[in-house]
Amino acid sequence: MALIVLAADKGSPGVTTAAVALAAVWPRRALLAETDPAGGDLVYRSAAAHGGMLNPNTGMLSIAATARRGLVPDQLWDHVQPLSGGLEVLVGLGIAEQAAGLAGLWPTLGSAFAQLADSPNAPADVIADCGRISGDTPVVELFPHAALVLLISRTEPEAIARVRDRAAALSTKLHGGPRGAASLATPLIGVILIADPNNSGKLVNQVNDMLVHAQTGARVVGTLAEDPAGAEQLAGRKRGRLDKSMLIRSARKVTSDLYQQYGAAWSVPGQVHQAQQIQQPGGQQPGHAGYSGHAGAGR
Question: Which long-range contacts (CB under 8 A, 24 or more apart) does 237-246 make?
């Protein structure tokens, strides 16, 4: 099973952009779930496959009623919509007040997301965009079901300090206390830095040293390029060769590294992986991305 959750501590580090970019180049079929209790963005920014608007009532909002009666993983597909580029998404809530309808259901959703990869009918990995989290954010109840918890952070000193403290808090919550760098715990807590590619290597070493010294049990698992033009292309607001952007190239590297390290544990016997093409929201094919999946929009 493979549920991968993405979250951030504070500010706007680009969690949705990161989630869409990773889902767009994921090596297997991927379902992007907008699970941010504050509400999703894709319904406002992305066109549906039929060319019109996404239905805001089909997704996390509609799944709430189903989940209260129990949720079989394959039922998730009843609430999925494809973007015009092909990426399959569970559209997020419209406003934060709607999160009350999911109260008590987050563990049920987490279990269904995690087990979808083992579905005999339509297996997929789930990448969950959890937005900004704090100690009392209910979406954290998804995390024990995840294979990976990825914290997204920019590289300003205050951002690095916050991701260190958030990783330590999550380690205590999920693993029962701080852990050394060599400890193996599930889910693994990783950090993805949004960084200038020219000095990302030095930053990774510095942040890893900080995470180890604080006994967070977390480590940097990759960097995504700070690429405003690529983010605009991913959101469908700018034309260009999306597959050639620094953002998508770096997302490919992150997914490749993750699969090299953990893919064997996520493999579904007999599943066929087919490389497709990334498409922009208007349906334009900018070129081969190297992995399956399609691009949509980001925050």
Answer: 239/280, 239/284, 240/286, 241/286, 241/287, 242/278, 242/280, 242/286, 242/287, 242/289, 242/295, 243/277, 243/278, 243/286, 243/287, 243/288, 243/289, 243/290, 244/286, 244/287, 246/197
Written as six digits, the tokens of 106 are 């987050």
Helix (H, G, I), strand (E, B) or coil at 103: coil
| CB-based burial label for 131 (10 Å; 0-12, 13-18, 19+) | buried
pLDDT value for 275: 37
Q: What is the pLDDT of residues 237-253, one digit of tens each?
A: 788 888 889 999 999 99
C-alpha Rg value of the chain to the nearest Å = 18
Rounded to whole angstroms, the Cα distance separating 139 from 146 reads 12
Is residue 276's pLDDT more than 80? no
In this structure, are residues 48 and 81 in contact, taking their beta carbons and an 8 Å threshold? Answer: yes
Say what the pLDDT of residue 81 is: 94
Joined together, the tokens standing for residue 4 give 């991968």
pLDDT at 75: 95
Strand partners, 287: 278
Distance CA 17, CA 15 (A): 6
The answer to whether residues 165 and 42 touch, using CB atoms and an 8 Å cutoff, is no
